[in-house]
Design goal:
The chain is of the alpha/beta class and 249 residues long. The protein has 11 helices and 8 strands. It has a domain of 173 residues: TIM Barrel, CATH 3.20.20.70. It has an 8-stranded parallel β-barrel, surrounded by 8 helices. It binds pyridoxine-5'-phosphate. Pyridoxine-5'-phosphate binds next to strand 8 and helix 10.
Amino acid sequence: MNMIKKNKNHILSVNLDHVATLRQQRHTLYPDIVTAAGICEQAGADGITLHLRQDRRHIQNRDVELIREISILPLTVEMSCSKEITDLMCRIRPEKVTLVPEKPEELTTEGGLNLKEMKDTVKRLMEEMQSEGIHVCLFLEPEITDIELAAELKCDAVEIHTGTYAHNFDARNTSRTFEELERIQKSVETGTSAGLMMNVGHGLHYQNVIPVAGIPSVTEFSIGHGIISRAVFTGLKAAVSDMAEIIKQ
Ligand code: PXP
């Protein structure tokens, strides 16, 4: 696998959930999501992502409405397969939604959708949103059969769950890292050949993102926790521009 390829077409969508986590912890007005989105834009981000969870633990409906209205960057909303949130998205109309599985007790999204089990629900909600001009992306494990099923269902994009890769990443012991990376690469190639836009996300940080950035046909990198954590020390602008530089090289 060629690990170093310049790819200026890779795009970075910054997930701002944890700006809202900090705000919701004290129910203050700060730190402000709209300000954060403006800084991301100035720092070279290509998009903003918000996860509107059913329990509204961080992002609130108003955040999605404000970013949709004010930010010039394309907005992706991560959402569970919920009819309530589908109706809300049909009203707010972000550029893209990513359907994810959601469990109330989880700390963060734990894996891709079980598409084989959920395909009827996914198709119904997806078609509702697509008819409003919203692109629909499915969050999936790097499993070839899932990618093929996603293409059959006619989604617009797939985001490959990189959490297992990220969790196993060990710069000193690369064998497990390479196994997972190869699964991601093969899935991206399968999806690209089927005409899908192929994205990646979850658990990516400034070290483990480098090999993934070597996969040329990935379109979008959806990254939150790593960037917001680094921003505590460097400021958001530097954290975003450092990440943008890595994924575009
Ligand atoms: N992609 C999806 C589908 C997610 O649910 C999340 C977490 O909200 C991310 C990407 C971003 O993950 P992280 O915060 O670990 O970068």
